[in-house]
Design brief:
With 857 residues, this protein is α/β, with parallel strands linked by helices. It folds into four domains: 4-164, Immunoglobulin-like (Sandwich); 166-194 and 747-857, Immunoglobulins (Immunoglobulin-like); 200-316, Chitobiase, domain 2; 322-739, Glycosidases (TIM Barrel), CATH 3.20.20. Helices cover 26% and strands 23% of the residues. The strands form nine sheets. Strands 20-21-24-25-26-29-30-31 form an eight-stranded parallel beta barrel, surrounded by six helices. It has a seven-stranded mixed β-sheet with strand order 11-19-16-17-15-13-14. A five-stranded mixed β-sheet has the order 1-7-3-2-10. Helix 4 runs parallel beside helix 5 (281-294) and helix 8 crosses helix 11. The radius of gyration is 28 Å and the shape is globular. Keywords: Glycosidase, Hydrolase, Signal. It comes from Pontibacter anaerobius. It catalyses: Hydrolysis of terminal non-reducing N-acetyl-D-hexosamine residues in N-acetyl-beta-D-hexosaminides.
């Protein structure tokens, strides 16, 4: 699924720490100290010296260790831990780098390492793969002394990338400039004022003037939706409109009209009334969301005496019944407040499925009261030696107080989330990662076992074990773990799953929230698993249907499917739950598994990277009978970096994703719009020439679209929102809006012209209406502000911006542009370094780019 190559990328990209030589000197190095680093006196600086070392795609950096403390750093007896890839050590006599587990590694002094005196520094050369962006460096350094193995002390790291990325950044800025030049700046009067784009939209007549006297008149079935509307309008007018059962005169009416589709609505606005009609509460709710996007962005900035609502006639219904977003709060935790904000923005843009990824190798985030260790141990990351937590990951550091590494949702929190989602017609789909990606759960149940055995309760201790204690199997997952796979032969594994499922079902029942499916993961189980498990071998010898460890896969999902069916639920998972391993001519292939094709399995198919051989997998699975949610990495993985420049955070193992990728996705013919390889280069079309097309039968099995946001590089809510928005607006448009004309046009030239027009319209709506709204809506979102496009033209620096309505500001004196710097109005004649930065209407700026104008004009 999601993470196939993420682990490989993290291991390889973050840093191939390998030592070649070490020298010492007495020159101090300034580094930012964190709490704790000051105590032990160490600071680190990593300088990128060569990003194409030995003419290969590898880097050479200088790691400077500075001793700011009063005592010498000894020549031995310590380890420097960090998260990120360490794959080899060039000179083990000076230092060694070892892989601990997952993405955790450590550097230890070798026999020739010399102590570092107080005030002195040592420099260590380190090698690694070529650095792509700011997210590729190691993170989370801390030192552990052999004398106190259970205590980790944070060590600060300063990174100096040098000027290795300047040329590439300027080249990309020129590429962006050319792309932006094709975007027309459209007048506000030409923009569709309802978003996502409705099926039918017409502006007519005079506006409706909204003020504090307006009431909401709602049919009884729409009372909850009327409350939502009343609260939303209070933001604009300063007073919640009264909700009435009947009235005449000027008002907003929510009317039930039988015979309409399940999520269909109409919206009519004239000077005397606003009327929303629908046959269901969901339809009425989506009509309200369209009304909310009709309001100007300033309506959400504060109280206004009156607000004009444009006169429109809208008829609308969604293209797909499944319009999903996956929130990963397992790898790095996000607080409940951020989950509620995600639900708010999803609801505004009519998305209706929140895939709740609460369990992973690196964290279990949902309280299950019968199994408290799941959160006390599995929800805590820290450096310990007693099994009271799981190991630091993704830079969470040695202390349990890390907000990204430690945290969970209490039962009460989750019920509140479910109610909040329910009231916004969003179904929350919980994911229990299994049998792989389960280390947090496995270690939590190990801790439970240890506790109960010590209490003399061995039978109870074994009740929920997730591994065979005598298993000697050797494996390594793509994220680097060697102990993260549940043993699916154990009855205790199913005891565990049934307990968790029943607790989840009970929480949904208490919240009166819909629960139709539970997602059971099912991806990335590595070779070697279960081969030396006595329990597995015993099952193979006793069960004729299970011939080898490969068959354990089908055994497991058959039992899970049965468990869910007994509870009136269906099984969801990543694509692997519906695949079978076959060997043809000595080559391993994965094909749709006919055993489960008619079992109503819903599969998120993410593999479609060009050159992977799985470009058409979603269509093959749909054609075979599986219910498919299009989740392709190439267009919907929102955690991938926006572009290949150094300043853009995020991974790039699956390419780059900006707002255009989901926008130009063609659900029923996405092979047509695979344009780039995973390096962002133009695609060799021969790669997908013979791939399987979607059949009419298969088309009926495409249930919708989902965009995941994995959280390896999201330590804060701001990090999360930066990657989520504005990309999510492209997802919402493609999931809701009808098939656009450019996607149906067969003539390439005509299609390209239609696309260019549609793209300009969309990007103007986003820049002039939706992003200004998101500056204030639900407290405001820290969406990404684009970097400027820029190039030297006729000796002058020309610049433009992706979103019309945003402002470019610049400086020529070497300082960073601020909201008060000169606004760009035409090509800049200054020579030397010209710094450009884009600002939104609220005065917040994006990343600065620097263009070197060497012209002598």
């Amino acid at each position: 699924m999601k993470k196939l190559t993420v682990g490989v990328w993290l291991l390889a990209q973050a840093m191939l720490m390998s030592c070649s030589q070490i020298s010492t000197d007495s020159a101090g190095v300034t580094a930012t100290n964190e709490a704790g680093a000051e105590t032990q006196g160490l600071g680190l600086k990593l300088e990128l010296a060569d990003n194409h070392y030995q003419n290969r795609a590898q880097s050479r950096s200088v790691l400077t260790i500075t001793n700011n403390g009063p005592e010498a750093l000894p020549a031995k007896g310590w380890k420097l831990y960090f998260n990120g890839g360490a794959l080899k050590s060039a000179d083990s006599t000076v230092a060694t780098v070892q892989h601990f587990n997952g993405d955790l590694h450590y550097l230890a002094p070798g026999p020739e390492f010399k102590e570092i005196a107080p005030g002195a520094s040592a420099t260590v050369e380190v090698l690694g793969r070529a650095v792509g962006n700011v997210s590729n460096f190691p993170v989370g350094f801390y030192i552990v002394y052999d004398a106190e193995p259970g205590k980790g002390i944070p060590v600060s790291l300063a990174i100096e990338p040098g000027d290795h990325f300047n040329e590439a950044t300027q080249q990309f800025a020129a590429k962006v400039y050319e792309a932006n030049a094709a975007i027309q700046n459209l007048p506000a009067t030409a923009l569709t004022k309802v978003f996502p784009t409705p099926v039918s939209y017409q502006e007519k007549g005079e506006p409706f003037v909204l003020d504090a006297k307006v009431t909401v008149v709602a049919d009884a079935d729409f009372r909850r939706e009327a409350e939502h509307l009343s609260e939303a309008l209070a933001t604009a007018t300063g007073q919640k409109p009264a909700i009435l059962g009947s009235a005449t005169g000027k008002a907003i009416f929510l009317k039930k009209k039988p015979g309409m589709g399940a999520e269909e609505y109409t919206l009519s606005v004239n000077p005397e009334r606003i009327e929303i009609t629908a046959s269901s509460p969901a339809g009425a709710f989506y009509g309200i969301q369209s009304l909310k996007t009709l309001l100007p962005a300033t309506a959400y900035a504060g109280k206004a005496a009156t607000v004009e609502v444009a006169g429109v006639e809208v008829k609308d219904a969604p293209r797909f019944g499944y319009r999903g977003f996956m929130m990963d709060m397992a790898r790095n935790f996000q607080p409940k407040s951020e989950v509620l904000k995600v639900l708010d923005v999803m609801a505004l843009y009519k998305m209706n499925k929140l895939h709740f990824h609460f369990s992973e190798d690196e964290g279990w985030r949902l309280e299950i009261r019968p199994l408290p260790e799941l959160t006390s141990v599995g929800g805590t990351r820290a450096h310990t030696t007693d099994g009271s937590s799981i190991v630091p990951s993704y830079g969470s550091g040695p202390d349990a107080g890390s907000k990204a590494g430690t945290g969970f949702y209490s039962r009460e929190d989750f019920i509140e989330i479910l109610k909040y989602a329910r009231d916004r017609h969003i179904e929350v789909i919980p994911e229990i990662e299994s049998p792989g990606h389960a280390r947090a759960a496995i270690k939590a149940m190990d801790a439970r076992y240890t506790r109960l055995v010590a209490e003399g309760k061995k039978e109870e201790a074994e009740r929920y074990l997730l591994r065979d204690l005598n298993d000697k199997s050797v494996y390594r997952s793509v994220q680097g773990w060697n102990d993260n796979i549940m043993d699916v032969s154990l009855p205790s594994t199913y005891n565990f799953l049934e307990t968790v499922v029943d607790e989840i079902v009970a929480m949904y029942k208490e919240a009166q929230a819909p629960l139709n499916t539970i997602h059971f993961g099912g991806d990335e189980v590595p070779g070697g698993v279960w081969e030396k498990s006595p329990s597995v071998q015993r099952l193979i010898s006793q069960n004729p249907a299970v011939k080898d460890t490969d068959d354990m896969w089908y055994y497991y999902f058959g039992k899970v499917n049965q468990m869910l069916q007994e509870r009136g639920l269906y099984l969801s998972g990543w694509e692997e739950i519906g695949l079978r391993k076959v060997v043809e001519n000595g080559k391993v292939n994965w094909v749709p598994n006919q055993q489960f094709a008619s079992e109503n399995f819903h599969v998120n198919v993410w593999k479609n990277s060009p050159g992977s051989g799985a470009e058409d997998l979603a269509y093959r699975m749909a054609n075979a009978g599986y219910k498919v949610i299009l989740t392709g990495v190439t267009h919907f993985y929102l955690d991938l970096a926006y572009n290949p420049t150094y300043s853009e955070p995020g991974l790039n193992w699956g390419g780059y994703v900006d707002i255009d990728k989901p926008f130009y996705f063609i659900p029923y013919d996405y092979l047509r719009n695979l344009k780039e390889d995973d390096r962002g280069n133009p695609l060799d079309r021969s790669i997908i020439k013979s791939k399987e097309a979607l059949t009419e039968k298969g088309k009926a099995n495409i249930v919708g679209i989902e965009a995941p946001l994995w959280s390896e590089t999201n330590k804060t809510a701001e990090d999360f929102e930066y990657k989520m928005l504005p990309k999510l607006l492209g997802v919402a448009e493609r999931a809701w809006a009808k098939d656009p004309d450019w996607a149906k046009e067969k003539d390439p030239a005509k299609s390209e012209k239609l696309y260019s027009q549609a793209w300009s319209g969309f990007i103007n709506v986003v820049g002039k209406r939706e992003l200004p709204r998101l500056d204030y809506y639900a407290g405001g979102y820290q969406y990404r502000i684009p970097t400027a496009g820029a190039k030297v033209v006729d000796g002058k620096v020309a610049a433009n911006v992706q979103f019309p309505g945003f402002t470019i500001r610049y400086t020529t004196d070497g300082t960073e542009p601020t909201a008060s710097s000169p606004a760009y109005s035409g090509p800049i004649t200054a020579t030397g370094a010209v710094k450009l930065r884009v600002f939104n209407a609220a005065g917040r700026g994006g990343h600065t780019i620097t263009v070197q104008n060497q012209s002598t004009m």
